[in-house]
Amino acid sequence: MKSTIAALKAIADGTRLRIVKLLLQYNYCVGALARRLDVTEAAISQHLKVLREAGLLVGEKRGHFMHYDVDRNALRALGAELEELAVIKREACKPEEEGCEQQRRGRCRAHEAGGECPEEVHFACHGPNADEKENGRNGHCECQESQKGIR
Amino acid sequence: MKSTIAALKAIADGTRLRIVKLLLQYNYCVGALARRLDVTEAAISQHLKVLREAGLLVGEKRGHFMHYDVDRNALRALGAELEELAVIKREACKPEEEGCEQQRRGRCRAHEAGGECPEEVHFACHGPNADEKENGRNGHCECQESQKGIR
DNA sequence: CCCTTGATTAAGTGATTACTTAATTACAGA
DNA sequence: TCTGTAATTAAGTAATCACTTAATCAAGGG
User: Fold this and answer.
1) Domain count for chain A
2) Are residue B61 and residue B114 in the same domain, yes or no?
């Protein structure tokens, strides 16, 4: 989760994305990357550090040259994580589990049909206010796909 | 390409990733997001703008509430793009196409076997220097998987 | 043991970013 | 039309970031 963000941050940079793409194809050392990308070696080294610490690269010393490889599994995993987000579905309201009040939801649907939205269901959109939060309401059941059209 | 980076930058932020995850599940309006995430509405609005301009969200006005939905296709496409990177293979050297000198590569392998790396193949790792670049050498063929172990 | 070269680190700079508060725009109801 | 509320935008600030140059570390070859 936190490492996901670190990895996303690491690859969400033009120069670093170019580095990753180059290293996927070629086994360049640091100096070669610098020349190919027309960036100073120091800058490349700093970018490599970011990518390495994000788990996207692994380094290997050969002679006194340093070569970096992309951790393809980490890259795949990162992509998969985003794709998996995309399949999250709007949760259906389960009032019996969540302790929500069906009456209130019913009233929301009435509003959807053109009726008026009573004051008690305002948090359908806005979530619980401070008092409601203390009363354990989480405001989530009122904002489902099933009630699309409500506020 | 450029939009890829924008989308990655947009989602590579803790607060914005939380927004996306919430919006995948719930149909909150801006104020509800602000309350759920304990962030000011102004801050949320600015994050929503970033996500919207990156193509990850679409907004819809209902009454005078603003609801945002995640563009799941965009999210999927972004994840797929990262996964597709991971399958890029190290390119085999094609000297006939690239104008590289096989003799030189041969000498590199000799070095791999424990021999000495002659000065002329130094760019095997480092890419072309200024003069070589003018002579059309791209320094790429010498740095392939096939020559792993060379500098 | 020095000298050269590759790579990293240190320090400093300008640009960008995430946030705050305040002002503004947009909209619905009285 | 006026009022109150939702949302956005403006303006300012502290922190982070990508880059630069210079110094340092590491590793061979003479």
Assistant:
1) 2
2) no
Report the sign of the C-alpha dihedral through residues A58, A60, A64, A65, in that order.
negative
* Domain enclosing residue A138, as ranges: 95-147
Cβ density class A57-71: b for 16+ within 10 Å, e for less: beeeeeeebebbebb
Measure CA to C1' and name the residue nearest D8: B45
Digit-coded pLDDT (tens) for A131-151: 443 333 333 333 333 233 333
Residue of B nearest to A84 (CA): B76
Name the helix (H) or strand (E) containing B82.
helix B72-85
| pTM assigned to the model | 0.74
% helix / strand / coil in chain B, to the nearest 5?
A: 60, 10, 30
- Say how far apart CA B131 and CA B93 lie, in whole Å: 22
Best CA proximity match to B32, nearest among B61, B59, B68, B63: B68
